[in-house]
C-alpha cells in the first residue's frame, strides 16, 4: 500500500535505489476542540453543531460508570480491565508474527459515542506524505506515537523517514509502497524507532531509538467490536482501506460511504491500497463512523481527517487493523 495524495504520479513497477527525501512535511495544526463553536469549515465545528461532538468528557464516557483517570486527557475513562481469549478467526498474514486480539470481549462496556479521539492527547498533528507513497510509514508511526503516549504521558513525534530509508530489507519499498507489519518487524529487530527530531531529514542510518516493541497485534478481521476494543484499550490503530475512488480523494465533510467500494467480506488485503490511522469512533445523524486521520495534509478532507462509515465495513476499515505492543 502506498497511495499518495491526489494528483501523485503512479508508482513505477521497478524499485529504484533509495531516494534522498526530506522528512514528510507538516501543515499547521489546530488542537482538538480548539475551534470555537460556530466556526465554519472545520470538522469539529460541524460535529458540535450537529450534536455529534460534545465535550470529550461527556461524549467519551460509557454507561459503565467509568470516570476520568489521572494522567489521561479529560474525558478518557479508565480502560476497563477484562480477560479475553484469543480467537481463531484472524489468520496471521504470510510472514507475519503478529498476535491477535479477539473479536468479542465479554463484559467490556465501550463508550456509545466517541466523536473525539478515544485518547485525544495521543494524536500528533496531521502530516503530509505528498507524492511519496509512504502511507504505511505514517500509519505505523501514528500507532506507535499513541502507544508511547499512553505509556509515558508524553507525545513524541516519531520518524517516518527512518522507516522509508531503512526498512527495505523487510520488504518495504519506501515511496513505492510498504506494509505496516513489515515496519513493525523492522522496529522490533532494531530495538525501536527514532523520533522525528533525532533522525531529522534523510540519513540512511539508524539513530538512537525512542521506544522498543515486543511485537504487534492483528485485530480480528472485519469485527467492529474488536477494532473499537483495540482503540479504547490501546489507543490509535493503523488500518488499511480502499482509497481508490474519486469520492475519497475529494471528501470534505459528513460520514463517508462509497457504494462502489469493494464490499465486505470481499475487502481482502489485495483490495486495500492505503494505510491510515483510526483514532476514534462515533455516531452522526444516526450513522456510525470511524474517525480516521489521513496523511495528505490538513488541506485534504476536514482538517486532514475523515469520518468513514462503519456499516458494511465500507472501504475495509475493519479488515486489517494493527497496533504495536511496547516493550
From TrEMBL:
Concerning CDD domains, the annotation shows:
Peptidase_C1A (cd02248)
- Show the ranges annotated as biased composition (Low complexity): 1-16, 69-81
Q: Which GO terms describe its molecular function?
A: cysteine-type peptidase activity
Location of the region described as Disordered in the Swiss-Prot/TrEMBL record? 1-37, 69-98
**Which Pfam families does the UniProt entry name for this protein?**
Peptidase_C1
Q: Does the keyword tRNA-binding apply?
A: no
List this protein's GO terms for biological process.
Answer: proteolysis
Q: Which InterPro entries match?
A: Papain-like_cys_pep_sf, Pept_asp_AS, Pept_cys_AS, Pept_his_AS, Peptidase_C1A, Peptidase_C1A_C, Peptidase_C1A_papain-like
Kindly give the SUPFAM superfamilies that the UniProt entry links to this protein: Cysteine proteinases
Which keywords appear in this protein's UniProt record, sorted alphabetically? Answer: Disulfide bond, Hydrolase, Protease, Thiol protease
Statement: the UniProt record of this protein carries the keyword DNA repair:
no
Q: Which residues form the Peptidase C1A papain C-terminal domain?
A: 110-325
User: Hey, which family's this protein in?
Assistant: Belongs to the peptidase C1 family.
Q: What PANTHER family does the entry give? A: CYSTEINE PROTEASE FAMILY C1-RELATED
Protein name (database record): Peptidase C1A papain C-terminal domain-containing protein
User: From what organism does this protein derive?
Assistant: Nothoprocta perdicaria (Chilean tinamou)
Amino acid at each position: 500500500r502506498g497511495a499518495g495524495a491526489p494528483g501523485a504520479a503512479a508508482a513505477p513497477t521497478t524499485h529504484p535505489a533509495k531516494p534522498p527525501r526530506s522528512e514528510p512535511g507538516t501543515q499547521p495544526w489546530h488542537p482538538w476542540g480548539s475551534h470555537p463553536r460556530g466556526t465554519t469549515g472545520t470538522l469539529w465545528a460541524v460535529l458540535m453543531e450537529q450534536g455529534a461532538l460534545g465535550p470529550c468528557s461527556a461524549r467519551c464516557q460509557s454507561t459503565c460508570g467509568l470516570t476520568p483517570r489521572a494522567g489521561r486527557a479529560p474525558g478518557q475513562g479508565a480502560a476497563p480491565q477484562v480477560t479475553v481469549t484469543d480467537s481463531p478467526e484472524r489468520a496471521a498474514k504470510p510472514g507475519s508474527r503478529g498476535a491477535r486480539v479477539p473479536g468479542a470481549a465479554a463484559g467490556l462496556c465501550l463508550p456509545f459515542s466517541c466523536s473525539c479521539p478515544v485518547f485525544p492527547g495521543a494524536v500528533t498533528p496531521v502530516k503530509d506524505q505528498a507524492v511519496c507513497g509512504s502511507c504505511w510509514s505514517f500509519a505505523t508511526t501514528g500507532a506507535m506515537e499513541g502507544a508511547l503516549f499512553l505509556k509515558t504521558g508524553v507525545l513524541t513525534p516519531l520518524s517516518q523517514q527512518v522507516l522509508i530509508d531503512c526498512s527495505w530489507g523487510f520488504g518495504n519499498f519506501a515511496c513505492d509502497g510498504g506494509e505496516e507489519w513489515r515496519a513493525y518487524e523492522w522496529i522490533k529487530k532494531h530495538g525501536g524507532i527514532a523520533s522525528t527530531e533525532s533522525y531529522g531529514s534523510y540519513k540512511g542510518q539508524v539513530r538512537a531509538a525512542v521506544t522498543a516493541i515486543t511485537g504487534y497485534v492483528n485485530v480480528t478481521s472485519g469485527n467492529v467490536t474488536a477494532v473499537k476494543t483495540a482503540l479504547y484499550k490501546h489507543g490509535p490503530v493503523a488500518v488499511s482501506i480502499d482509497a481508490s475512488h474519486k469520492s475519497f480523494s475529494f471528501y470534505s465533510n459528513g460520514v463517508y460511504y462509497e457504494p462502489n467500494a469493494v464490499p465486505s467480506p470481499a475487502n481482502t488485503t489485495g483490495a486495500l491500497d492505503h494505510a491510515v490511522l483510526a483514532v476514534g469512533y462515533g455516531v452522526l445523524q444516526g450513522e456510525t463512523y470511524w474517525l480516521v486521520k489521513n496523511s495528505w495534509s490538513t488541506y485534504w478532507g476536514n482538517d486532514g481527517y475523515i469520518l468513514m462509515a462503519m456499516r458494511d465495513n465500507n472501504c475495509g476499515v475493519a479488515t486489517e487493523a494493527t497496533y504495536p505492543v511496547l516493550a
